[in-house]
């Protein structure tokens, strides 16, 4: 059952009532209001839980929160403020939006999106202003992809074309693209149709030395392959993945980018995660091997045991590639099983699920590998993962089953205690 919701004005009124009628101090009044609404089952995730600033004008109560004050300054100065003042105003708004989703939601409810987009379009010729405006747009749309409209989609495409040589502007613009595409299938499809994919892949090639941009662009490419919008009956995740690979040379670009950032585990993790999302066809898995991607990942796994997150993403990528039976042979012959077992020994919690899934992929239709994997102690490690890591329950037992081990299955329902009636 969904929780009840209230408006920001209702919450603020309750806080003021506690202060005025019950003479509570601001912190106590705020705490009491939160407890009161939560006890009634109200969802406060979209509420700014801060005591509003005092206002002498009752009609301006909605402007008392700092994010709304910053928005009002932007709205007033959009046409009249000087360049330094405009940048200061937009940066202030961005800082407020970065405090949390509640601030962003409140700003959006009070009409922030058209104000920010208007500022972005007017300032696009001034590099510093464009950077500040895009930062605000990226902050505002974080968790609110529905805000983006056709005009905003076209602006993002245009600004990425205009500032292709500027890594800072490009990086922030791509961040805004990513925010607008998470859990929003229509935005993804519209942006892809508008030419977004070549802009992302070209950004990685052009700024291959900028780890932050490479990570951001790779992340945005991965989001284009998501199927996470429950409102969409049919998604284009598979089509987008194929387009990235076949039309925009995505696999080679990502693998080369990974090789250029061996010391940056954050960028490497994202690149491996994106490569795994692109291994959607048998020939793509083989292409990754032919491009040196599998060999690179095996080396990366051997050299990166101290980074659990990177190990997790590498194992996930190898699992995806090992969907190709020929790749299974390559993984095993290259000592991949030993590396997987070592990874599980080092990090029994974080990458355990990916290791179990990878082992399952290796022995699927290739039972001759079972004995080799078992001799390395995989059974005990998988059993330990099942016992200590909740996410590994079903996956771990499935891996044990496919390895030919004894698995104790719990009977969830026996048909007792009642009967099924029409």
TrEMBL record:
<dbReference type="InterPro" id="IPR000225">
    <property type="entry name" value="Armadillo"/>
</dbReference>
<dbReference type="InterPro" id="IPR011989">
    <property type="entry name" value="ARM-like"/>
</dbReference>
<dbReference type="GO" id="GO:0002244">
    <property type="term" value="P:hematopoietic progenitor cell differentiation"/>
</dbReference>
<protein>
    <submittedName>
        <fullName>Armadillo repeat containing 6</fullName>
    </submittedName>
</protein>
<feature type="repeat" description="ARM">
    <location>
        <begin position="292"/>
        <end position="336"/>
    </location>
</feature>
<dbReference type="InterPro" id="IPR016024">
    <property type="entry name" value="ARM-type_fold"/>
</dbReference>
<keyword id="KW-0677">Repeat</keyword>
